[in-house]
Amino acid sequence: MPGKRWPEDHVRLRPVFSSLLGFTAVAVLLTVSPGPDFAVVLRTSLSSGRRAALCSALGIAAGCFVWGLAGAAGLTAMLSASQAAYDALRVAGALYLMWLGFQALRSARRSSKAGREAKASRTEAGGTGAGGTGAGGTGAGAPVPETGPADRQSPLQAFRTGLLTNVLNPKVGVVYMSLLPQFIPHDAPVVTTTLLLVAVHAVLGLVWLGGIALAVHRARAFFQRPRVRRRMDQATGGVLLALGAAVGVETAR
């Protein structure tokens, strides 16, 4: 009867549950380590808001599943065996990170320029008002240009950015290839267990990166200050450029 199989199934699944718990502890450390994912979500949250940042985190999680499926299909083993393919993917990832960093720095420069123009506009309006042209000529009514980033992303664009950031990082595939087999019990279904482990990593990533997006949103009054936004754009842009350059230099060696 089906009921008589339950103890046997419980014993058979116990190693899988133990592996999931062990992998969760390791995955937490992998998740909270600063890297491109963190910088991309922070940058997206600052430039495009909470919804886009959450979509970026979803794209990163989807990238985890892409690498998980590739690992289950043996593609990551092929990538690891082919130095040329591995280096090509690393170069593509490095260029993409550097492009994202350039976008952030360009946004900071545009924001700084808009701020200077707004200050000059207020100064001119104030001078006109002092000359006695009436209430309509005072600086109080002068429009202030928007100093925020001009390159806002839609949710779909943010998802794509997160996905590409992860998929173009071959280290994710290599980590999966070297780490996941250690947590797959003997006689356990390889594909199913692999996807379970990847799901754990993806969920942890969503919680962590989603928390970052929500924290930035809650403190939006602070982060919306033009000077703060410029500094954050400069910081995240510099980090992304440095990460991309580091990957490129390491690949060239």
From TrEMBL:
Keywords assigned by UniProt?
Answer: Cell membrane, Membrane, Transmembrane, Transmembrane helix
Instruction: Look up the domain of life of the source.
Output: Bacteria
**Which parts of the sequence are annotated with region: Disordered?**
113-152
Membrane-spanning segments: 20-42, 54-78, 84-102, 163-184, 190-214, 235-252
Keyword Transmembrane helix found: yes
Which Pfam families does its entry note? LysE
- Name the major location: membrane
Aminoacyl-tRNA synthetase found in the keyword field: no
* A GO MF label: amino acid transmembrane transporter activity
The cross-references to InterPro entries, in alphabetical order and at most eight, read: LeuE-type (IPR001123)
Q: How does it sit in the membrane?
A: Multi-pass membrane protein
Q: Where in the cell is it found?
A: Cell membrane
Q: Where is the composition biased (Gly residues)?
A: 126-140
Gene Ontology cellular-component terms for this entry are: plasma membrane
PANTHER family assigned: ARGININE EXPORTER PROTEIN ARGO, ARGININE EXPORTER PROTEIN ARGO-RELATED
UniProt-recorded name of the protein: Lysine transporter LysE
